[in-house]
Request: fold
Amino acid sequence: MIHRAQLKQEAKEVMRGATVSPYGFTLVYLLIGMVLSCLSLYASLPDTITSVQKMQELYPYLPISALLPYLNSLPVLPSGTAIFAGVLLWLVAVVLEAGVVLYHLGVRKGKEMPFSSLFEGFGMAGRVILLTVLESIFIMLWSMLFVIPGIVAAYRYRFALYNLCENPDLRAMDAIRMSKAQTKGFKGALFVLDLSFIGWDLLSGLTSGILNIWLHPYKVQTDMGYFRAIKRIQGIGLLSDPAPDNGGEAPSAHA
Reply:
């Protein structure tokens, strides 16, 4: 088994050793994400207005009715333009996620990763987008069988983006196959890892997401700790990962 507490402590130490603060980096990422979300809501303005109206009906005590006059005063984009804008904004968000992975992988390897690392994913945008589209299709197809197979599929492909970011020459399908092999026998452990953050997620909700400035990098680095530990156990994807992160000793685990 993998020692979750050990990897969480290791994640904190990795973040403390970062030259560029992971919290400042995350703040920039979240702010950009907020802007993209606002633009996406505007691109689908009629749907946004409908959602606000339904929220007003369901939760009349919330002060959201003041938004409706403002939203109704905004010009509506033509349907074709709205669809194009929505897809473009989604693609930008997908590529920025790859930038986050590249930053945290670099920090874990002791590299100096500037804020501009957030945009490094655009150098491999084609593969990142193709990977995300394939993952979404596979997860959707599995979800058609039932909810649980869809959840299992999401865990199966969890490390695909990590593999691609570590090995930019990989094909999208190869990164997916590699993740499938890496997570074999470890989906339950990854599920328990996610459950261990539920308390923090609830606290983050109570702070309107502000706590995510600290929580997001902590979760990503812990996940990467699992990724690297599982690679060593499974012996898959080690070509670009010659040295362990914790002083040359892999976390204790049993096959």
